[in-house]
Write a sequence for this structure.
């Protein structure tokens, strides 16, 4: 029993170390992009519909959704449309890398709205599927929600938007994930 507890504790410690190793701040990410570091691919992993209403940073190289919205299936319990994992996510990331002359060892940095819903899971998924240097932007695009006060629930702290980094309410049609013929 004692060995099982020790093994479990070590397993959690390894997972925590991996999560910390995968995390990168919005500012650090932007510095890498501004310095045009080779072998860095910065990917917005939000569904384009979310981007349309929340905003976009042209600093990203591409938008490859990790989770997609199925607007034909309503989740009555949560009051939202069903999300499902993009079955082509890893292949689409690989294609974006190849388009830029990079391989799977490149640093792939993912960014979602908050960092925890799709950012961290997408980076972990990529690491488990042959992209050993995948990372995610902590606090994502919008940042964390304020917990108390008149603005409670609003995402007004940290993250890409709240760090003064470049973003726009408009999407770049050349970078956004599209299924229509261009």
């Amino acid at each position: 029993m004692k060995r099982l507890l020790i093994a479990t504790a070590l397993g959690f410690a390894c997972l925590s170390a991996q999560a910390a190793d995968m995390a990168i701040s919005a500012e650090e990410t932007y510095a890498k992009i501004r310095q045009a570091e080779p072998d860095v691919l910065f990917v917005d992993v939000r569904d384009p519909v979310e981007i349309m209403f929340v905003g976009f940073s042209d600093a990203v190289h591409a938008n490859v959704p990790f989770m997609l919205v199925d607007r034909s299936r309503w989740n009555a319990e949560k009051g939202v449309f069903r999300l499902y994992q993009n079955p082509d996510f890893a292949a689409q990331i690989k294609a974006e890398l190849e388009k830029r002359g990079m391989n799977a060892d490149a640093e792939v940095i993912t960014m979602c709205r908050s960092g925890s819903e799709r950012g961290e899971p997408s980076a972990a998924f990529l690491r488990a599927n042959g992209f050993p240097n995948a990372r995610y932007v902590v606090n994502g695009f919008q940042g964390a929600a304020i917990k108390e006060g008149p603005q409670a629930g609003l995402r007004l702290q940290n993250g890409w938007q709240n760090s003064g980094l470049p973003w726009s309410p408009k999407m770049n049609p050349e970078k956004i994930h599209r299924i229509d013929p261009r």
User: Anything to note?
Assistant: Confidence is low (pLDDT under 50) at residues 7-17. Residues 2-22 form the longest helix (21 residues). The beta strands are 23-24, 40-44, 62-63, 67-75, 80-85, 107-111, 135-137.
